[in-house]
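Bug: token stream looks shifted between consecutive jobs. Job 1:
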Amino acid sequence: MTSLPPQPLSPLDGRYRAAVGSLGEHLSEAGLNRARIHVEVEWLIAQTDRGFFGTQPLTPSQKDALRAVVTDFGQADIDELAALEATTRHDVKAVEYYVRRRLELLGLDSIAELTHFACTSEDINNLSYAITVRDAVQQIWLPKLGLVIARLTELAEEHRDASMLSRTHGQPATPTTMGKELAVFAHRLQRIARQVEQTEYLGKFSGATGTFSAHVVAVPDVSWPDVSREFVESLGLTWNPLTTQIESHDWQAELYARVSHANRVLHNLATDIWTYISLGYFRQIPAAGATGSSTMPHKVNPIRFENAEANLELSSAVLDSLAATLVTSRLQRDLTDSSAQRNIGVGFGHSLLALDNLLRGLGEIDLDRALLLDDLDHNWEVLGEAIQTVIRGEVVAGQSTISDPYALLKELTRGKRVGAAELAEFVSSLEIGDAAKQRLLALTPASYVGLADELVDRLAPHD
């Protein structure tokens, strides 16, 4: 048997690349290296702007040329860095040598020794990870989540008045509307999205053990904490003043926990929609030419929601592991975070793939309102709650002497099917006021939905 040509090991880079490939712009090794070069270049510019060691500020054209090293970063540069790392056996050192080469090509070799000046590798790495994760979340993951929330909001509005039998514990229960139930998911996800939007992306820039030791020895008369803060903030990050060699990764643990929480709410959505499809409440709109089953041609399988379930579970497994691992580092530094952080893209990739499937799945379903009403019409016993509650009020108001309304309705309805005629006869015989009796006689399972329709308005407007 001949060997296969090189193949992607992960389905994220193979079968599902079209759905998640945009994350590679940020959360790939190449994206990380481009961010590292960005940090190194900006540090060079910051040092010359301050005139360290008698240097002059770079001219605008020189700054533009240096920054173009970042913006023009492409495949040839990726290959060059890979070759450098094969020699250095150190990823950040390879980046340093790459930047030095560019300084020489630009005629700026006089400032080459300021490349990576007073930095430990983690000064570059932590800022680069913060930049790449921030951009991936803000530019790709959150917008996709927003599309899912927007679709849920549309469906909630469309079906706000679609009365539906509830199933608490899987059993017939007080009716609701499909719109209100979908609004619950949209509301939950809106709240988590706001929390993710408020994430602080922290950065440190303080040397080998977070003490500015080399900085102070090299340039004693500079306020290094101020320099560090200004530099970190210039990258759009929040400065962390107290660290070891590494930034402590607490912001990452917080972010991944929130994304994992969103995953679990989305998982709940996927299983509920799957169940509604199973009950026949939602019909799936078949795609032209698609096959549901290899042997049963009638089937339209709910694969979008099943695919989402699996990928949400995988995403949370990775993100939960990262959140637990990254907050611990032995003494002033160990390398467990180095390997762990290379899987950030995997965690977000599976979540993004799930969002893509959910969005497509939610666009391929149609509500069968007639079936919902038929289901309600076969479950008049759910009005037992309404009847016993009204009787209680009548007893308090002196309009009834019924001693135990709950027991009375329990005897009538528990474990039994009770039809419209039986309930009407029962209500007509009750010792309650005429106004209360008429309200109950007018009630149907389809109309017993309280404020479900109005509650949809509690959803925050979606941009």
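Job 2, same session, no restart:
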Amino acid sequence: MDRIDLLPVGRRVAYWRGRRNLSQQVFADRLGKSKSWVDKVERGVRALDKVSTLQDIAAVLRIDTAVLLGRDVQPAEVAERTVDVERIRAALSRYEIPLGRPAGRRPVLSVDRLTREVAHAWTTFQYARYPQVIDLLPDLLTDVQRTHAHNPGAGRVPLVEAYRITAALLVKLGDAELAWLAADRAMAAATGDWILVAAVAVQLGQVLRAAGRVRTAKSVMRAAAYRIASPMIEYGTPPDLSLCGTLLIQAALAAARYGDGAAVVELLDEAADLAERVGDGHDHHRTGFGPTAVDLARTATAIELGDARDAVAWHEKAIQRYGWRYLPVEHRAAHLLDAARAYLQVGDPVAAGRVLVDAERIAPAEVRHRPAGRDALAQAARELDAPATLTQLADALGVG
């Protein structure tokens, strides 16, 4: 059934019921309907015109509601993400501050107050509380612009950091184009301060990879890393080394995406040397850089290069490091999504299910709100040996 999306909705129900090995009677019982009702739906005699009924059917079949309705209809979670992104787009589209127009009755915040607000937003993001970050960003973006206009010197760092958070969140939500705008604004504001530029470049690397510009990402990340890595890099401070190492990781992730294994090894070995000097348990410039972060990157690059067994080995090594527990929740949960992919590729759906359940436990939004998380969950839930806890989670979220 190569073109299931072209079938009438009733036929799609029948198709997916067959895929789930459900008889009409069992399917009807789970829906609380009669077998005759199911038969009429599948033959197109009875229309499915209630969203709640479609959602119930999708939940039983462990698929997104959009699969039943076709490509152009979004499930509730996707529609919610679209609304969230539009709220951020609206905030980024306001030009009252640069045009010198009043921005409502909001007062100009002091730099100290704004710095605390930005730090709170970063912490909220790193705990993977994405819905809360979405609520914070519109007002925060207005506030940082107002403070920067009032005090360009002192207000520069909060402005750059707010744009960094925005870009990082938008990558999570799957909008690379809008994330690129936020990263570009951050880069423009940071120009002239190489440490700020390097910090922004971390998010720029994520954006470029999300947009499929992997060769550009590798080139830009490498250039930014080596710009920080002065000839006297052996005397570099841990924050500077963390930025340099994180940019090397970003370059390696980009290289892995287009199959340059030699570059991946070179870049990650360089990053590992810096990581040993920084150590674990730090979060300089919101990078979480250290030896454990390099091992996580080795997992991700091995998956991209098709070396799933190596990826599993790196994952299992990394989570035994003491530095694992000190990484931000967002970083750990994102890695667990990678680990799930690796386990699926080596034919171990039970382990894949276990790490996905762990990811959902420590950072529910990473699985529930992030498209990559929902995709990983859907893929794992289709496996015959998927754990019951995983299929229950997939059922609850309407994926499968």
